Task: inverse folding
């Protein structure tokens, strides 16, 4: 099986499992809600709960089989071993490239993208703020009259009707943030390409003046490698293990485990002698015999 076929198989399985998980969750919520809305005086009996959840048992067992099948698929079709790549934020990379250009030589297209990105973030945050204000107003309005005159929507001060009314505002704020994040990601990638080209042209121009000639692609490749090495170097220097080499010793880990275990035992002993264990036991007995009704 080719790598493309492996990726496609796993992607199709992931989509099917996600849909089945969503269906199982919706059915579970529906059953819980139907038990809650039951007209019986004691809806939470073992027989009633069993009857409701046996109705969705086939879907639940199908979901369990899908989870097991996923383990089999991932075992039979293992991922190709890949060397983990250090995560570098686009913003960090963009700042590295822009530092190689004088302030007056930053391309106008890059400045325009930065300005548009700022406007998009401001608009999305404004949408979230408006959504929060409207939602708060609807939820706290004491004179609110439900639009749906049914028992479910008018109960509890119209709580369900209020939630239905603020749902579009919440979704609007959420999708505004999602759109801003996606736009910022693609905008920063495009801006990096523009700035990298400008830096490469500047380096090539300087090389011509000094007598060294290089193609634009070679200059861009070398520049990208340089920026990546600098960024990874900074990330590595911030590693805790690099700052404190003694943390890499196996005796440090063993000693830490022993210290934590000894501290736990000491606290248990202190709790026994100061009466804490007896208090917990008495509370557990009272909960079981008086609240839950066992015994």
Result:
């Amino acid at each position: 099986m080719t790598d493309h076929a492996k990726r496609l198989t796993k992607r199709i399985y992931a989509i099917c499992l996600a849909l089945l998980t969503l269906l199982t969750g919706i059915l579970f919520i529906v059953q819980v809600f139907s038990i809650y809305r039951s007209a019986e005086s004691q809806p939470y009996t073992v027989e009633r709960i069993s009857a409701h959840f046996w109705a969705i048992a086939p879907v639940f067992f199908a979901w369990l089989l899908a989870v097991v099948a996923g383990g089999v698929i991932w075992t039979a079709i293992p991922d190709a071993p890949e060397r983990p790549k250090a995560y570098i934020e686009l913003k960090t990379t963009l700042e590295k490239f822009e530092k190689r250009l004088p302030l007056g030589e930053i391309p106008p297209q890059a400045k325009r993208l930065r300005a548009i990105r700022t406007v998009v973030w401001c608009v999305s945050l404004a949408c979230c703020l408006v959504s929060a204000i409207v939602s708060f107003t609807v939820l706290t309005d004491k004179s609110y009259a439900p639009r749906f005159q049914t028992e479910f929507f008018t109960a509890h001060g119209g709580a369900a009707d209020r939630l239905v009314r603020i749902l579009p505002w919440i979704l609007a704020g959420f999708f505004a943030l999602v759109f801003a994040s996606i736009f910022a990601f693609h905008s920063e990638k495009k801006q990096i390409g523009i700035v990298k080209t400008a830096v490469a042209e500047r380096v090539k121009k300087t090389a011509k003046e000094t007598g060294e000639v290089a193609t634009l692609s070679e200059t861009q490749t070398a520049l990208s490698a340089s920026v990546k090495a600098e960024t990874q170097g900074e990330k590595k220097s911030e590693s805790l293990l690099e700052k404190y080499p003694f943390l890499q010793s196996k005796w440090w880990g063993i000693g830490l485990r022993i210290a934590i275990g000894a501290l736990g035992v000491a606290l248990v002993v202190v709790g026994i002698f100061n009466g804490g264990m007896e208090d917990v036991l008495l509370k557990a007995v009272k909960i079981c015999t008086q609240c839950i009704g066992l015994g």
